[in-house]
Amino acid sequence: MKKITGLMLASVLAMGVAGCGSEKTATEVKKGEPVKIGGLFDITGGTGDVGTPYAEGEKAYVEYINSKGGVNGHKIELIGDDYAYKIPEAQKLYQKLKSSDKVSAILGWGTGDTEALRQQVATDKLPFFSASYSEHLKDLKQSPYNFLTAASYSDQARTVLKWIKDNHKGGTAKVALIYNDTAFGKSPIEDAKAYAKEIGVDIVDEQIVDLKALDTTSQLLNMNKKAPDYAIINQTWGATSTILKDAKKLNLKTQFIGLNWATGEGLVKIAGDASENFIGVVTHAFPYEKDLKGMKDVEEYLKSKGQKLEDKNQKFIQGWVTAKIMAEGIKNADKMTGDGIRAGIEKINNLDLGGLAANVTFTKDNHAGTNKIRLAKVKNGKFEVFTDYISYK
């Protein structure tokens, strides 16, 4: 992977838009020419623990589809870099991808940079798939070229709260929220609080934990004063593992439940037995779910590289699926332009992802592909899925 940078401050981006708005963007790709897709990756930044396998999955799918002849006579060229989850760098990389590389669409990453870039993305007419599932990206007036390929963080939190409401025994369920002070961390919080109030679940505490926290004892002790039955975590593997290890040392009885970036094999590897009984939101399949139809293509690709499914984790599958959905949009496009690919994505109707993720549908009026998730629990050091695809409504 090359090098990028990431979370954007809106003010920084606004200056970038003002300074670069007149630059020429990509023109229509002619028959037989490659379709260039830009990639914003976090390999070395605050979310690099999950960003690295995700980027590998995106690159792998592009290589796989190209080995099959590409899409409608076009190979896909993925041009990406590591932006390290830093603010000024995402804008610089975006400008390069747009103006120098003439990409026709973008595979992005973080919430802060995605939200801050969305006005410029709309001006440049570049379809944008982010690894952020921020609820704000559903707003087509503000984000007409952004698409969500999995349930939004807010929908994930609502579904977890609904599951708690339906399964809690003994009075009103008490829930704490643990998140980092970034656009990503805070994304679902207000929606979660509003929905909890609506359905009669009590949010009793909130704690801020840094993405790279090495000690969360003080936050957990403060949380424990409110005696929550459950704590919903919106973090990546690193901070989540710290929370779970400290909770085990403190002998807390709270049931911890993580949204999608807190969930996966990497968490178990870092947290060890402290992850036992942790519940995670599952938006994409685990590689060890080998019987899934969609896993056969992944296995075929890995075998060609001398690798096995056991070499990969869930975030690799997540990146693979994201690139696969983009390829489907390109396949549906009448013209290989940003507008053409956007229209092609909007033709995707109940796309069967072979069990690797919930089927997705996009229309001109709805760029949120799904609101469905599964839930899994760590048992004997391994996530075991215990629900079908579910949603809060």
Automatic annotation (TrEMBL):
Top-level division of the source organism's lineage: Bacteria
Leucine-binding protein domain boundaries: 34-381
UniProt keyword list: Signal
Keyword Signal (UniProt): yes
Entries under SUPFAM superfamilies matching the protein: Periplasmic binding protein-like I
Signal peptide: 1-20
Family assignment from sequence similarity: Belongs to the leucine-binding protein family.
Protein name as annotated: ABC transporter substrate-binding protein
Originating organism: Ectobacillus antri
